[in-house]
Amino acid sequence: MNLETNANLPPAGVQTDFPVPPGVYAETAVSVRHYTEKLFMFRMTRPPAFRFRSGEFVMIGLPNAEKPVFRAYSIACPNWDEELEFYSIKVPDGPLTQHLQNLQPGDTVLMRRKSTGTLVNDALLSGRRLFLFSTGTGIAPFASLVRDPETYEKFESVIMTHTCREVAELGYGIDLTRQTYDDPLVGEEARECLTHYPTVTREPFRVTGRITHLLESGKIFRDLGIETLDPEKDRCMICGSMDMLHDTKDILLQRGFKEGSNREPADFVIERAFADNDEGNT
Asked: If one looks up domain 121-270 in CATH, what number appears?
């Protein structure tokens, strides 16, 4: 289900009667799209001085309190984009998203000045294939990476998996893949190298099951007609629910993969910034 920008939203936008805290960017929402009653995407203006690496996250808030709440959000666009994109869940009683989900074009969004994160190309050793394992809004950092030319310069093949509970929740990833294939900068490389592998756990779909089960059974490799995971040539990134992070990490460790970081690049990386976060990219 794709809801238009202002569908099912209260007529009023986000309250902005409080001053902007020092050391924080105050930017303007440009567009909002509600994919389901629980998921939405928004784009906002980009500060001219703001720099980030594709795959990193920032702290996002709203000017609706004297001490505004900030949550970690992966930047869901590549580092060359003139705007900034974010993909979010809606938590009814969430300190931030109960208000952020009412965002409308023209509203103010706060953003801390520093970006960081481990889901970056620099944290991985060179390899032939890159696997991007995601659940829910965990696809957000990968939305940045698959639109970055550096990803296709470093890897011959990119497999982006996206597991959700319901079919409608796959909408953002489907749109992302279509847009990436049509992108004037990376479209040619993406059509040749990028594979999108969506799965659903609670409804009928062409592929059903958790990504961990599909890895352990080998179904994903049979479906795609590719060889199984190999630490000699494969590199992996993981972002999603805590159970999925732990289980996928265990599978990789059992197969001889080594976890990397910004300081010590290796075979796979995990983003832990959202582990205790009930909002943002969980």
From this structure: 3.40.50.80
Number of H helices, E strands in the chain: 8, 11
SS3 123: helix
pTM over 0.85: yes
In angstroms, what CA-CA distances link 269 with 71, 184, 236, 239?
A: 21, 29, 7, 9
DSSP string, 216-265: HHSHHHHHHT-PPP-TTTEEEEEES-HHHHHHHHHHHHHTT--B--SSS-
β-bridge pairing 57-61 and 39-45: unpaired
pLDDT for 281: 52
Give me the CATH code for the 24-112 domain, please.
2.40.30.10
User: Which structure tokens are listed for 264?
Assistant: 């010590």
Instruction: Tell me: pLDDT of 150 over 50.
Output: yes
- What is the pLDDT averaged over residues 154-161? 98
DSSP label at 63?
A: S
For the cut 80, the answer to whether the pLDDT of residue 105 exceeds it is yes
DSSP 82: S
The pLDDT-based confidence of 13 (bands split at 50, 70, 90) is: low
Q: Domain segments of the chain: what residues? A: 24-112, 121-270
Pairing of strands 268-270, 157-164: unpaired
Residue 130's Cβ-side half-sphere holds a number of Cα atoms within 13 Å equal to: 28
Pairing of strands 39-45, 24-34: antiparallel
Task: Please state, in angstroms and rounded to a whole number, the distance separating the CA atoms of residues 212 and 230.
Answer: 16
